Amino acid sequence: MSFKNIYFILIRPQLGENIGATARALKNFNFSNLRIVNPRDGWPNEKAKVTSVGAINILNSSKVYNSLEKAVADLNFIIATTSRNRNVNKISIPIDQLNKKIKNKKKIGIIFGPEASGLSNSELSCADCIIKIPTNKNFSSINLSHSVMLFGYEFYKLFKNKKNKPILKNKNLIAKKSEVAKFISFIISSLDKIGFLQPQHKKKSMINSIKNIFYRNNLSNKEIRILLGVFASLNKRNIKKLN
Amino acid sequence: MSFKNIYFILIRPQLGENIGATARALKNFNFSNLRIVNPRDGWPNEKAKVTSVGAINILNSSKVYNSLEKAVADLNFIIATTSRNRNVNKISIPIDQLNKKIKNKKKIGIIFGPEASGLSNSELSCADCIIKIPTNKNFSSINLSHSVMLFGYEFYKLFKNKKNKPILKNKNLIAKKSEVAKFISFIISSLDKIGFLQPQHKKKSMINSIKNIFYRNNLSNKEIRILLGVFASLNKRNIKKLN
């Protein structure tokens, strides 16, 4: 577990200035993995180059994706950042207690929402946990690059302080997010076929609830196989019957 | 010693954008005392207003000085910030050990140098101590507002520290273990009916795996209802068919 295991992921960032400032902050703390999902103004971005100052290499090696799912597919543990209190059943811990969450994780992604609105509930549902920066209750909206900065800082301290160094055990155990996503989309399509996701206006929130339950659960590959077996077995006869 | 005892002082700042972002960061952490010494582009500054977002009140109540000496005249203890190693005979401590320096101080000033060069040796000499942000040795130049952000954050934690406990969202909503157990035994009996828990010698370990998945998950009552719905719905037709 070290700098190269951490992936900073900007979701739908709006301002190039913030993307550049993010790159600089990452380099300040020795990180280099930047991923960008659907940047509003396209990519590459001239304004990002200006504010990146000496960190243009981070911008040049960044990867751009057209969906959150693709951006996290190869990662094992996703931390969502939010300044608002969110009504989701996920554990939320203060940022300076990061080390409690990242033990035994192999590839960790931290997702940051867009400047104006933060992460949507659907984006938030893909995360394993929420980490909150403690702030003034009456003014909790933090600049995007400032949030990245604080995460970089806290991870840097963690990795530099040998006493606190998280130990990686059983590193192959936790499934990649792409495996979890495959499993979830299997459940959802099965449920859709038998008419469970009705009425239509509740469908989206039901899907988010199901994602919430399974994404936060650190499922291993073996457990996913078991759950797939469970659902497939329950579903097989339904499908037969429908046909 | 509290938020109002801390004064953030920008020395010869060059970019209005950074002054505005500084104001926002101060407000994020409940600080309000901003002092500015000889801003390059004069004062007030339109670009600062733009990046301050909701913290225009901090800019409006900031005080502008024409010398560092005047800006710190009424303060008791001055902390200088630097990312470079400086050849001055002053004690330098890491930022997360702030508390060791600020005990028993009444009014504390933190001085930040201009973007391009940082504090001059002469300015540095006005400080009681140097506090350094730990960074990548090969890229230690931190954006001005990012440095302010980190100081705000560390002071905020210091003043707020109540042994930050992890918080689980909606803590009243977490289901009792008896509810989880009821749900799990429902799944298991459904699976048993349709012959999923075979062969017999693997049954026990399959049941344990299923328990493992759902017990560690802090399910809420609402989520249990959803899962029960999911399984019941998948199962209904199976049962009908078996009967």
Low-confidence spans of chain A: 167-171
Radius of gyration of chain A, in angstroms, nearest whole number: 19 Å
- Order the strands across the largest sheet of chain A as they lie in space: 3-2-1-6-4-7-5
- Class derived from helix and strand content of chain A: alpha/beta
Annotation field: number of helices of chain A: 10
Q: What oligomerization state is this entry in?
A: homodimer
Q: Span between N and C termini of chain A?
A: 49 Å
**Largest β-sheet summary of chain A:** 7 strands, parallel
Q: Give the largest interface.
A: A-B, 69 and 66 residues
Query: How many distinct beta strands of chain A?
Result: 7
Q: What sort of overall outline of chain A do the alpha carbons produce when their principal axes are compared? A: globular
The average pLDDT score of chain A comes to: 87
Name the CATH homologous superfamily of the largest domain in chain A.
SPOUT methyltransferase, trefoil knot domain
Query: Which range does the strand content of chain A fall in?
Result: 5-15%
CATH topology of the largest domain in chain A: Alpha/beta knot
Domain module count of chain A: 2
How would you spell out the order of helices and strands of chain A? EHEHHEHEEHEHEHHHH
